[in-house]
């Protein structure tokens, strides 16, 4: 990378600066008047377009504001149902589990950001334009919104003769909105102040780090929870009544946990920063990646479900079985990696694979009973045995394989035991988790699991071996030829019919499997696009310096291919996240379904649908916009699109 | 080499042996907590009654709509509330002695009967109309009707409609309803019979239908009377007056518990749990005075509450089954007023009044 920078011309050199923070495309700034004339009013056609565009934008803004602040909106429906929107029926008494899970994710996110992130800085000048921009926008919003309706002494809208509501005069409206004026003025003043102090040529380059901007904004948002009177809204189960007290700050059970979340995020971020420079940075980075893979499953099935372990069963069956697989399997792998094991090793591995596959066939015909865990473990052992020839040789390498095997076995057996144990959380309906929690969980799991699968499929499709190529190609084409809804319905309705007696697949697990397989096929095509951009010379160079096929793929081909396909991969992540709303069709209560059909069916809020849907849209936008922005930064950092 | 094979063989044996001991409850890698129980249900469907299965399982799986206003609605805290939800609790209180031992399963109209047939739910309380074809071809059995509903129309007073309007008055109007339901066919038939020409528009769900009515795109909307009353109570603007007509609905929609056919023991338990709430209403027995009436009531009351016991025990229920029903959930009138009065549905003068007050709600005697 660095070498390439020095070789190429001006543009590349600028990118070098870009990595330290300032945007590579920064143009020398003009005075405001000149800038406007140059960009927006350069000729009469351009001026007309500018005026027309701003008029349409104002109209749209006015429409949105009037909709949001209309006297017909019942925002109470959303406020009292916030918990239902987030987790649906998860019981309040056990809610600490939700916060623990969220806190773990917040801590892990902070740690990863601290370990990896290189977000650079943003110039104070730019920050000041943001402040001025938001202040100006706020002022425009205050002006364009139509005046509020007048409420009579009975709390009802006062109406004119023809039935339309009577509105206060424009002047009164502006006076009523004085607090918004003040906010806009403060933002504008702050922006102007910063602008004035940081435009001189010597201070133009002054920057603050993006991290501190992010943390300060998050902190301010959190602070507003403690001081701003957002209102206190709750649903009291005992009396089945909705309590709405405006003028108070939000409930203590909301603001305290969020404060802890932010503290965890910041704390672990700075911990990550410190660890990054330590000698163990590599190990810790690996561990945090591993935690990302394990934690969604663990948090969902262990922390949120709180399985009621039957220790008798654990001691008599689960533990001995796990130990048997761990140590006997370890012994098998140890002997398979002996130097000079030769063809016998390959033979044993193939036989193991045959046996593992036969177990699954037998399961479908119900020939002999066997624990599902055992079937999975045999399959894993067969895969490990097939990989064993790569580890033949020194003791250290052999030990590495056996230790990994022990770790994988422990994890698989632990999770399988936990998943099979009934939950102790008392639910009020059959839906264990719903709302945004379900949406995020499904999206996260699907993205995490489909990524490795997709990369393998892409490699398979571009492989030299016809059998891998045919299998991957037919898999990808079959899945891509079928709509996601069909795949979901197939896994939720059809697959249980094919399973043998006594073997069941929970709805959520079925859906996760189907969605992962679907997403992997699309991901594979994105990665293949990247693979095709790697020139033949790269392969030849790798071969020339004597790399094995695995080394060539891992160190030369994939890093470049994945870098190239970042935009498509991020697009895939975003669409995976958004398409989780299709889960509603097979009966799961995702985020959108709660807003679309649960809230409008409550007798208190009959038919109140638009408010919830607007909120859902905003939250989807927030997540997707963040992902998108982050990926743009990533693209800039790796220099994508500048080659 | 041979040593290796021997190790493998021993390993396989060990695993199979472990598997043999408890394959039924552990054979799935990613199953939910209730899987073991679900397996049992499918087995049970062949021989013993669902009643015993429910008792050994300890919860009642009750299929509801989850989005039927005042009948079964999912609350902000995730609990299920409404008339149908309370009747699920009635059955749970009778069979298990605890009204909270209900696992509510939200079902769409399309999947409800399949859910009963596959054993996913024991019972439907999902505003399901009792019809001949469902009773015979679909393979359901129906319990006593808990709510007599019927399709009606709702128009604006300003358009000249009143409570005494008839279907013959709606000629030339735009009539809206939700797509894919029998309401569409009913109104078309009724209009054809009355000899009037109407323009029928259908929308995806009834929220959209109501919004189009409010915006003026529809002159009249039609669905079950109970839903129309709720919409009028909640969504009628200050400036308008909506009226519901005709007084005699254009269709009969008796709603009540629905279960799989040919399971007499379970059917009896459900039916008599419902009857108990109706008899209690007749006798003036409610959740507040049930303890007192246990000793001071008339013979039938004491028999119903389990004073003599053999009636309930004979049908496989605990002797105090109906005492638990009345004390934990209440009688018919309590359940009705708790859930349906707030949305503007009153019992007086409707088909849902007691038979002594000119309604249709009637129960056979408990003796």
Architecture overview:
The complex is a heterodimer of chains A (643) and B (367). Chain A has 643 residues and is mainly α. Chain A folds into 3 domains: 73-90 and 433-643, MetI-like (MetI-like fold, Orthogonal Bundle); 95-151 and 160-308, no CATH class; 309-421, no CATH class. Helix content of chain A is 70%, strand content 2%. In chain A, helix 11 (210-227) packs antiparallel against helix 12 (252-276) and helix 13 (281-304) packs across helix 18. Mean pLDDT of chain A is 85; it is low at 1-24. With 367 residues, chain B is an alpha/beta fold. Chain B folds into 2 domains: 49-147 and 255-357, 3-Layer(aba) Sandwich (D-Maltodextrin-Binding Protein, domain 2); 151-251, D-Maltodextrin-Binding Protein, domain 2. Chain B contains 16 helices and 15 strands. Chain B has helices at 2-21, 23-26, 35-44, 50-57, 83-96, 112-117, 132-136, 182-194, 206-215, 225-235, 264-282, 290-296, 299-304, 310-314, 321-328, 332-340; strands at residues 60-64, 67-68, 72-74, 80-81, 102-106, 123-124, 140-142, 147-149, 151-156, 174-178, 199-203, 220-224, 242-245, 253-255, 258-260. In chain B, the strands form 5 sheets. Chain B has a 5-stranded mixed β-sheet, with helices on both faces. Chain B has a 3-stranded parallel β-sheet with strand order 5-1-6. In chain B, helix 5 (83-96) crosses helix 11 and helix 11 (264-282) packs across helix 15. Chain B is globular and about 65 Å long. The interface between A and B is large, with 78 and 67 residues.
């Amino acid at each position: 990378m660095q070498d390439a920078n020095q070789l190429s011309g001006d543009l590349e050199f600028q990118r070098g600066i870009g990595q330290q923070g300032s945007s590579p495309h920064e143009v020398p700034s003009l005075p405001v008047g000149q800038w406007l004339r140059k960009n927006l009013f350069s000729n009469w056609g351009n001026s007309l377009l500018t005026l027309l565009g701003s008029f349409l934008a104002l109209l749209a803004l006015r429409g949105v504001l009037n909709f949001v602040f209309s006297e017909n909106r019942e925002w109470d429906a959303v406020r009292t149902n916030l918990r239902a929107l987030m987790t649906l029926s998860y019981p309040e008494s056990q809610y600490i589990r939700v916060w623990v899970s969220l806190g773990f994710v917040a801590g892990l996110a902070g740690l990863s950001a601290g370990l990896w992130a290189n977000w650079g800085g943003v110039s104070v000048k730019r920050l000041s334009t943001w402040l001025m921009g938001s202040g100006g926008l706020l002022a425009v919003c205050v002006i364009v919104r139509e005046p509020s309706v007048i409420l009579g002494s009975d709390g009802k809208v006062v109406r004119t003769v023809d039935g339309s509501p009577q509105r206060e005069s424009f002047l009164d409206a502006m006076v009523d909105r004085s607090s918004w004026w003040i906010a806009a003025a403060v933002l504008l003043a702050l922006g102007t102040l910063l602008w004035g102090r940081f435009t001189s040529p010597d201070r133009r380059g002054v920057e603050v780090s993006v991290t501190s901007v992010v943390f300060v904004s998050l902190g301010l948002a959190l602070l507003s929870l403690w001081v701003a009177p957002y209102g206190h809204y709750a649903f009291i189960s005992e009396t089945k009544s909705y309590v709405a007290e405006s003028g108070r700050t939000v409930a203590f059970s909301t603001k305290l946990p969020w404060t802890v979340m932010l503290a965890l995020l910041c704390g672990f971020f700075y911990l990550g920063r410190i660890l990054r420079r330590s000698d163990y940075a590599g190990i810790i980075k690996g561990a945090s990646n591993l935690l990302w893979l394990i934690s969604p499953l663990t948090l969902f099935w262990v922390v949120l479900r709180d399985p009621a372990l039957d220790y008798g069963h654990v001691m008599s069956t689960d533990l001995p079985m796990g130990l048997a697989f761990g140590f006997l399997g370890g012994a098998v792998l140890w002997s398979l990696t002996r130097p000079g094991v030769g063809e016998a090793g390959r033979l044993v591995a193939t036989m193991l694979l045959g046996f593992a596959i036969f177990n699954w066939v037998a399961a479908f015909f119900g020939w002999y009973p066997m624990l599902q865990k055992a079937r999975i473990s045999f399959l894993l052992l067969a895969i490990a045995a097939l990989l064993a020839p790569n580890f033949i040789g020194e003791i250290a390498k052999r030990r590495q394989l056996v230790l990994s095997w022990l770790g994988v076995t422990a994890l698989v057996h632990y999770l399988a035991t936990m998943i099979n144990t009934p939950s102790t959380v008392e639910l009020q309906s059959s839906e264990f988790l719903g709302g945004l929690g379900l949406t995020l969980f499904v999206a996260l799991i699907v993205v995490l699991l489909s990524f490795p699968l997709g990369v393998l499929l892409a490699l398979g499709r571009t492989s030299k071996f016809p059998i891998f190529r045919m299998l991957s190609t037919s898999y990808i084409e079959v899945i891509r030829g079928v709509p996601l809804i069909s795949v979901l319905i197939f896994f939720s309705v059809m697959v249980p019919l094919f399973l043998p007696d006594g073997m069941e697949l929970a709805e959520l697990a079925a859906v996760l499997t189907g969605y992962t397989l679907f997403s992997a096929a699309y991901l594979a095509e994105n990665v293949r696009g990247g693979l095709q951009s790697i020139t033949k010379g790269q392969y030849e160079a790798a071969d020339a310096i004597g790399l094995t096929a695995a080394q060539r793929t891992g160190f030369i081909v994939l890093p470049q291919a994945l870098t190239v396909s970042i935009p498509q991969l991020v697009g895939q992540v975003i669409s995976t996240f958004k398409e989780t709303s299709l889960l509603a069709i097979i009966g799961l209560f995702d985020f959108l379904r709660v807003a679309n059909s649960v809230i409008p069916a409550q007798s208190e809020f009959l038919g109140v649908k638009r408010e919830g849907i607007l909120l859902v849209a905003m939250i989807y936008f927030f997540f997707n916009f963040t992902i998108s922005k982050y990926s743009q930064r990533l693209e800039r950092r790796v220099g994508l699109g500048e080659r | 080499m041979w040593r290796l094979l021997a190790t493998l063989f021993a390993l396989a044996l060990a695993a199979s042996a472990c598997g043999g001991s408890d394959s039924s409850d552990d054979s799935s890698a990613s199953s939910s907590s209730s899987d073991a129980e679900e397996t049992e249900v499918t087995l049970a469907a062949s021989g013993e009654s669902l009643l015993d299965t429910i008792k050994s399982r300890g919860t009642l799986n009750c299929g509801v709509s989850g989005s039927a206003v005042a009948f079964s609605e999912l609350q902000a805290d995730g609990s299920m509330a409404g008339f149908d939800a309370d009747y699920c609790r009635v059955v749970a209180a009778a069979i298990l002695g605890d009204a909270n031992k209900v696992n509510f399963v939200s079902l769409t109209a399309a999947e409800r009967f399949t859910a009963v047939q596959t054993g996913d739910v024991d019972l439907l309380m999902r505003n399901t109309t009792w019809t001949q074809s469902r009773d015979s071809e679909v393979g359901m059995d129906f319990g006593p009707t808990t709510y007599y509903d019927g399709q009606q129309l709702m128009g604006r007073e300003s358009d000249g409609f009143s409570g005494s309007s008839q279907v013959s008055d709606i000629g030339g109007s735009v009539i809206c309803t939700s797509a894919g339901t029998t309401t569409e066919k009913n109104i078309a038939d009724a209009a054809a019979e009355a000899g009037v020409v109407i323009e029928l528009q259908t929308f995806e769900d009834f929220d959209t239908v109501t919004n189009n009515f409010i915006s003026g795109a529809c002159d009249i909307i039609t669905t079950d009377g109970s839903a129309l009353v709720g919409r009028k109570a909640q969504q009628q603007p200050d400036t308008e007056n909506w009226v519901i007509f005709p007084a005699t609905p254009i269709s009969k929609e008796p709603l009540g518990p629905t279960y799989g056919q040919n399971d007499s023991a379970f059917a009896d338990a459900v039916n008599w749990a419902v009857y108990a709430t109706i008899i209690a209403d007749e006798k003036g027995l409610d959740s507040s005075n049930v303890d007192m009436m246990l000793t001071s009531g008339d013979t039938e009351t004491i028999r119903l509450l389990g004073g003599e016991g053999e009636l309930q025990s004979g049908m496989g229920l605990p002797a105090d089954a109906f005492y638990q029903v009345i004390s934990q959930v209440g009688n018919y009138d309590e359940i009705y007023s708790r859930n349906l009065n707030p949305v503007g549905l009153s019992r007086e003068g409707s088909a849902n009044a007691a038979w002594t007050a000119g309604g249709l709600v009637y129960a056979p005697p408990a003796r």
